[in-house]
Write a structure and sequence with these properties.
The complex is a heterodimer of chains A (about 800) and B (about 350). By secondary structure, chain A is an alpha+beta fold. Chain A has six domains: about 1-40 and about 155-190, Phenylalanyl-tRNA Synthetase, Chain B, domain 1; about 40-145, Nucleic acid-binding proteins (OB fold (Dihydrolipoamide Acetyltransferase, E2P), Beta Barrel); about 205-395, Phenylalanyl-tRNA Synthetase, Chain B, domain 3 (3-Layer(bba) Sandwich); about 405-470, Phenylalanyl-tRNA Synthetase, Chain B, domain 1 (2-Layer Sandwich); about 490-690, Bira Bifunctional Protein, Domain 2 (BirA Bifunctional Protein, domain 2); about 705-800, 2-Layer Sandwich (Alpha-Beta Plaits). Chain B folds into two domains: about 1-90; about 110-340, Bira Bifunctional Protein, Domain 2 (BirA Bifunctional Protein, domain 2), CATH 3.30.930.10. The chains are: A alpha+beta (about 800), B alpha+beta (about 350).
Chain lengths: ~800, ~350
């Protein structure tokens, strides 16, 4: 909502300065978004006429225009607007002028080889409206003004307020003045309503159809005959321009003025274009009309339309139609002042995607009792400026408005706000806000004014009182430093632990979007279903991610393109499995690319490999408190991993839920996304699949016992089939005697040479120690034999002789 | 006596010469070997007359000790000289690079979430979570924002179905609803997490982070709200004084509602928090609307309290001087490395939030 202090002063008597005003507005909840001082060179923008257009010799879309800027002066201006044509009256900005919207200072410039002396401006460039298609078109009445400056010199700063959606009353200058006056910032000027006293009958009958969901509950109107529509007088033009509106014609300007001043939207029809009578009714599916924005709208059932015998004139409270619009030659005016239900307005505007000033106001709630005042005010102004005769005011209603009433408990204020104000002060604020009251002991009987649709219950009154008396009066009660419940749950603790554990292994934490490109998602989706967003920000962010890999690999590739070769990144966050709340899981997902020890003077360079990520996964899980002795690992992994170089890890042999996957990313994916790296490995740890310990980590630890008896290390080499897993060998050995075998370590894997084809040799070192005695040669020999026998029987491997 | 003195003098003079390790060992064996001169003398002790035996033995021991000490100190000298000589040849260029290491980092948003949790932990809040995909009811209706409420326009919502029943939560406030539905008052929680709005430009990202706060008990009023936020902001920015402005605003789910600005000034292109005359909006809050309490079966006549919502990314930007919101999610290696935190840098109460 744009206002000026000057306009406010129409409604507010005050000696205070603008600086105080800005603070006070914010203090009472009417937040000042920006303050703009009028530009000194507004006078530079001149009304001008295009006298000739030619195609630009070097650019198809540009035109070279001869522009008459008055005083027989013609300027050559290059213009790209489609609507630039001979005879068009528009607004010319000379070199040196600063364009209000872009704040760019114009210079004489060559545009594709043709020198342009200044610019023809669109409405949006001048901050007159949002219209940015084409340059401003001024009505032909402006012809006599060619050469004159378009803006008159402005005195007032433009104050832009952010009005919250609950305060439609403050979408009018008067409402803002009322709030300010209540807060002690001056006195509200009591402008007496001038009633129209007329004996002239209004021949146009209005009927509101009583239909289901009728969006219009009251329709006031009057007819003004024999007017002469003209340009607005300077005071009115100045007023509108001062708040950034474009003056159009007296009739339109007056309705805009009344809307801005008291938040009462009106609509003026050319009465001669209305067929017989007005019917307010629900639309039928398929009906069409051309609106004032020059678009044709095709309506659905049950939208509130204003119509006549011939068809639709406009969408009630949203936008009028071209058929009955007023022009400079309009003689007779039919003026509408109606009440439309916010819900109906919103539904219709949403379905048709229309946003207008009237819609914005009606959907927030217009004062239902302002119908007559709006008509009175506008009709008198029209008569004053355009002449003519005003008919009787007619108001049709299908519902009578009754003011809301409330019982307010005076104690509630302190209970909610924590501080006290006197009953006297409370009554004063209520009165200033237009809330009527009757005092009954500790209670007030309140009657809420019609312009405050937001006040519905007691707490809304508390808000009014605390807002006006000042939020600075609220005490600061310091919090008590006391904790009665643990801050984090076990799984939240695990989240933080895994996050920092992975980072400590050289991975940079990334946060990427929860949505992703469907093409990338497809690579990593596995068997999950695709979750589409109905209205994505772009098609590349069209689905919720089924895996973190899709985003991570995309960003990894971007980083590789930046010239980094050896990178590790990870993310911990949600992946999505379905459309329903809760169908999501926390995953820790990491990627590592390139080499270890690239160009290293002391260490041997090598590609990152699956055993690097296996270490990161296993170490992290061990650090998180899971025992690696119990881990079970096999090679069944989703198809986005290298089928031979990847694994899945379970926390125990029960294989309940997958704790993690790790491995090389499938080379086909790298090829498809054109990723250039020596190696790419990754992992996923599924936090929700990690069973949370029932006991604390401390309680899980067994008693501390160590053996001081001598330990022995024995080495074995087995020859076995290539597809036999080392894990099988280890399992076989550990099954021999859990109390004696303390450690089993693979220290060599060898193929080729004198080893038969399809076989491999695996060398293992076994640590044997008893907790009861020192083992003698005989004992050791027995275990040796047992190990060899067990391995050979269980796995088919043969001891290498 | 003469024998002993002769041996002593002879070997003392020998040991004065420059000797290498094998010569020293030779001397050692000449004296103390099986048939060494000193060893032989010891064997003689039994044959000496009783009257002289004691003195002989004592003299012999003195000479033995003297020679032995001298020999071992000589051996030490020579050995250490030899080691030194060897080490002399082993000198390396210590300015060559160490074996390489890699450093991981924690994202500034994660770090900020941990800082926030740590601060609120101190005053008794626990951390709650909710799903990113929400139903329309929890995100809007239960929060007193029925369909056709203009406030819904301020939330450009991503929907997952044409009926607009499933959506990506536009704020963390639905966690309030979930928390209150599953438990009984009092409630004292914060809920950090991802939030989504279909808005994308320089200052808006389609995904961002919020932390919700909720404190409901029998007598929690606006003074508690002010105190809690004042404490939080001071702790978070790690400053003694903070300029904070509470001003009226509107949210459908709180009444009365407020927005909080903090004072700042620009110095050399950097934001200085807590000074100056500029105001920066950092959060929205208010007393939980009675309609919301009714929706979650909490009696507003018995219980009341406040809620707040803070933009985490915004806080991180302010505290750590990050200018561009979009960079948070751009995953640029250089950015992550520059703004990231060491994983050992866990924000805690006793150690302080940041180094």
């Amino acid at each position: 909502m744009k206002i000026t202090f000057d306009w406010l002063k129409d409604h507010l008597k005050t000696n205070l300065k603008e600086k105080n005003l800005l603070d006070q507005l914010t203090n009472i909840g009417l937040e000042v978004e920006s303050v703009e001082s009028p530009s000194d060179d507004n006078g530079l923008f001149k009304i001008a006429e295009i006298t000739k257009t030619e195609k630009h010799p070097n650019a198809d879309r540009l035109k070279v225009c001869d522009v008459n800027i008055g005083g027989n002066e013609i300027k050559k201006v290059v213009c790209g607007a489609e609507n630039a044509k001979e005879g068009l009256l528009t607004i010319y900005a000379p070199p040196g002028a600063i364009i209000p919207k872009t704040k760019i200072k114009l210079v004489i410039a060559k545009i594709r080889g043709v020198t342009s002396y200044g610019m023809l401006c669109s409405e949006s460039e001048l901050n007159l409206s949002d219209a940015s298609d084409g340059i401003t078109e001024l009505p032909k009445e402006h012809k006599k003004n060619i050469g004159k400056s378009y803006f008159t010199k402005l005195k007032s700063n433009l104050i832009d307020l952010s009005i919250t959606p609950n305060r439609p009353d403050c979408l009018g200058i008067k409402g803002i003045a009322r709030d300010l006056a209540a807060s002690g910032f001056g006195k509200l000027v009591d402008l007496k309503e001038k009633k129209i006293r007329s004996k002239i009958k209004n021949p146009l009958k209005v009927k509101i159809n009583k239909e289901k969901g009728q969006g219009c509950t009251a329709f006031g109107s009057c007819l003004i005959t024999n007017v002469k529509n003209t340009e607005s007088p300077q005071w009115l033009k100045d007023k509108l321009i001062s708040v950034g509106q474009k003056p159009i014609s007296a009739i339109v300007d007056i309705t805009n003025y009344v809307m801005l001043d008291i938040n009462r939207p009106l609509h003026a029809y050319d009465a001669d274009k209305i067929e017989k009578s007005i019917i307010v009714r629900n639309s039928r599916s398929g009906e069409e009309f051309t609106a004032l924005d020059n678009k044709i709208y095709r309506l659905e059932n049950d939208m509130c339309v204003i119509s006549d015998k011939k068809g639709i004139l406009g969408l009630g409270g949203i936008i009028g139609g071209t058929r009955s619009g007023t022009e400079f030659d309009t003689k007779n005016i039919f003026l509408e002042s109606a009440f439309f239900e916010p819900k109906s307005i919103r539904n219709t505007a949403k379905k048709l995607s229309i946003d207008t000033d009237a819609k914005f106001r009606f959907e927030r709630g217009i004062d239902p009792l302002s119908i007559e005042n709006g008509l009175n005010k506008a009709a008198s102004l029209i008569k004053e400026i355009c002449g003519g005769e005003i008919s009787k005011v007619d108001i049709q209603k299908i519902k009578t408005y009754k003011n809301k009433t409330l019982t307010f408990d005076l104690n509630l204020f302190e209970k909610i706000t924590g501080f006290k104000i006197s009953t006297k002060e409370i009554l004063k604020i209520l009165e200033d806000l237009g809330i009527k009251f009757k005092k009954k002991k500790k209670y007030l009987k309140l009657t809420i004014p019609s312009w405050r649709p937001d006040i519905l219950q007691e707490v809304d009154i508390v808000e009014e009182l605390v807002r006006i008396s000042g939020y600075d009066k609220i005490k600061t009660i310091h919090p008590v430093k006391e904790r009665t419940r643990p801050t984090l749950t076990l799984s939240q603790k695990l989240f933080h632990f895994l996050q920092r554990s992975i980072a400590s292994k050289g991975y940079l934490e990334a946060i990427t979007w929860s949505f992703t490109d469907a093409n990338y998602n497809n690579f990593f989706k596995g068997t999950k279903k695709e979750i589409k967003i109905v209205n994505p920000i772009s098609s590349e962010l069209g689905v919720l991610r089924n895996s973190i890999f899709s985003n991570l690999i995309m960003y990894m590739n971007k980083n590789l393109d930046r010239g980094f070769k050896d990178l590790s990144i990870f993310e911990i966050g949600p992946i999505f499995n379905g459309f329903n709340p809760g169908e999501q899981n926390i995953v820790v997902c990491g990627l590592s690319a390139g080499k270890k020890f690239r160009l290293n003077w002391i260490e041997k360079e090598r590609n990152v490999d699956v055993f690097d990520v296996k270490r990161d996964v296993v170490q992290t899980l061990v650090e998180a408190g899971y025992s690696s002795d119990k881990f079970f690992i096999d090679n069944e992994t989703p198809n986005y991993y290298h089928p031979g170089k990847s694994g899945r890890l379970f926390l125990n042999k029960g294989k309940d839920q997958v704790a993690a996957y790790f491995g090389e990313i499938h080379p086909n994916i790298l090829k498809k996304i054109d990723m250039k790296t020596e190696s790419l490995v990754g992992f996923e740890i599924f936090l929700d699949n990690l069973n949370l310990p029932k006991k604390t980590l401390n309680d899980q630890k067994p008693q501390f016992t160590v053996s001081d008896y001598q330990k022995s290390e024995r080495d074995f080499a087995f020859i076995m089939n290539k597809d036999l897993n080392a894990q099988d060998l280890i399992n076989a050995i550990s099954s021999v005697d859990k109390s004696l075998i303390k450690n089993i370590k693979v220290f060599d894997v060898y193929e080729g040479g004198n080893i038969p084809e399809n076989q491999k040799s695996v060398a293992i070192s076994v640590t044997i120690q008893s907790s009861e005695k020192t083992l003698n040669d005989n004992d050791l020999e027995k275990i040796n034999k047992l190990i060899i026998e067990t391995v050979e029987n269980k796995t088919g491997a043969k001891i290498r002789s | 006596m003469t024998d002993l003195k002769k041996i002593k003098d002879e070997f003392l003079s020998k040991l004065r010469e420059k000797l290498d390790i094998s010569e020293l060992n030779q001397i050692k064996s000449d004296l103390f070997g099986k048939n060494g001169l000193i060893s032989t003398q010891f064997k003689k002790i039994g044959t000496i007359a009783v009257s002289e035996r004691k003195k002989f033995a004592s003299d012999l021991n003195i000479i033995k000790d003297e020679l032995q000490n001298l020999i071992s100190s000589k051996i030490n000298e020579v050995e250490s000289a030899e080691i030194n000589k060897k080490l002399e040849k082993e000198k390396i260029d210590i300015t060559l690079p160490e074996r390489s290491f890699v450093r991981g980092k924690i994202h500034p948003v994660s770090q900020t979430i941990d800082e926030i949790s740590s601060i609120f932990s101190e005053i008794g809040f626990s951390v709650e979570e909710g799903p990113d995909v929400e139903n329309e009811y929890n995100n809007f209706t239960a929060l007193n924002t029925p369909e056709n409420h203009p406030a819904r326009d301020m939330h450009d919502t991503f929907y997952l179905d044409e009926k607009k029943q499933k959506l990506l939560r536009t704020h963390t406030s639905p966690v309030q609803i979930r928390t209150m539905l599953k438990d009984q008052p009092p409630f004292k929680i914060i809920a950090p997490g991802r939030t989504y709005r279909s808005d994308s430009d320089q200052t808006h990202s389609p995904m961002f982070h919020q932390v919700e706060g909720l404190h409901i008990d029998k007598n929690i009023n606006m003074g508690h709200l002010k105190g809690c936020l004042n404490y939080f902001i001071k702790e978070f920015f790690e400053v003694d004084k903070i300029k904070m402005r509470f001003r009226p605003s509107h949210f459908p789910f709180t009444e009365p509602s407020a927005e909080v600005d903090i004072g700042y000034e620009m110095k050399d292109g950097k934001i200085i928090i807590g000074e100056g005359n500029q105001w920066l909006e950092i959060l929205g809050c208010g007393m939980v609307h009675p309609n919301v309490l009714k929706n979650v079966k909490v009696d507003p006549a018995k219980f009341q309290g406040y809620a707040f919502g803070i933009g985490i990314d915004r806080l991180a930007m302010l505290k750590y001087g990050i200018n561009d919101l979009r960079a948070f999610f751009d995953c640029d290696y250089r950015w992550l490395n520059h703004f990231g935190f060491d994983p050992l840098d866990v924000p805690t109460n006793y150690r302080g939030l940041s180094r």
